[in-house]
Amino acid sequence: MATNTLSEVAELQVPDLKWKGFKVYKISGGAGPQHAHGRRDFYKIVLVTSVMTVSYGDQTAEINQTCLVLINPRISHSVIHHTERKGYACVFTEAFMAGRERTELLQNSPLFRFGKTPIIPLNSEQELFITGIYQKMLSVYQTDYEHQAELLKTCIELIMHEALRIQPSSNEPKHKNAATRITHRFMELQERQFPIESIGSPLKLRTAQDFAENLAVHVNYLNRSVKEVTGKPTSVHITERIVAEAKALLQHTDWSIAEIAYSLGFEYPTYFNNYFKRVTGLVPKSFR
């Protein structure tokens, strides 16, 4: 029987993670059915060689080589393995990486951002380098070294920086002017609203005016800045993110369509149905 497979990651709970929110292990095993991991309280970084299908939010990717898979706990995902897989995985909570610079690395890194692919293909040299880091983590994890946690955090940082070096983002705001700064603040504020975890805590910011008031700027200035920096209107960003969250809730929860509608700030399910159909061409029930 296969042991330490990717499917086991889905079953991990934070209290089970050694050193207050961390675990590293080797993975292996044959092909298997889909594992719907949903959204959890921990990040995952997996080094894997396999042929598999990864669904991440509303994106789907086919993998047939060695790669890094970086999973944000706020975005639902699932994996279907088509062949034997091998590699390493580590899971950790945001609390484990506590510290201003490390927390910012997690929260602001394009590696874990919504809309970015979580998959980074590796060549043989890159695979060898990252494998060495995982082997170091495994050896430290199994000892009583006084500063184990600090060394493990450093290893995670090293993997993330190597991933950024391999696949740098060409679309990140550089904060060269006020427009890029306000756009970055808008994008961060929007993303902090997700995921929707409770029907009783519906989405609050749903219009450009809502965001402008929260950011203490005029709505015309916000719209102009976002369009200048991203090429898309503020309303389009908001619509795309709400629909992406709707898709995740439809796919990964058993909430009724009415409950999903209310959680996303729609007063009536009919409004949500019309909104979803206008953007996707499908009613929510058909998409589910």
User: N-to-C terminal Cα separation, in Å?
Assistant: 33 Å
Q: What is the β-strand count? A: 9
CATH superfamily of the largest domain: Regulatory protein AraC
Mean pLDDT: 80
Report the CATH C-level class of the largest domain.
Mainly Beta
Query: Any low-confidence stretches, pLDDT <50, length ≥5?
Result: 1-16, 170-175
The proportion of residues in beta strands is: 15-25%
Our count of helices gives 12
CA-based gyration radius? 20 Å
Q: Which architecture of the largest domain does the CATH hierarchy give at level 2?
A: Sandwich
Provide the spatial order of strands within the biggest beta sheet: 1-8-3-6-9
The helix-and-strand class reads alpha+beta
Largest sheet: 5 strands, antiparallel
The helix fraction, in percent, is 40-55%
Q: Predict the CATH topology of the largest domain.
A: Jelly Rolls
Shape: globular
Number of domains: 2
SSE series: HHEEEEEEEEHEHHHHHHHHH
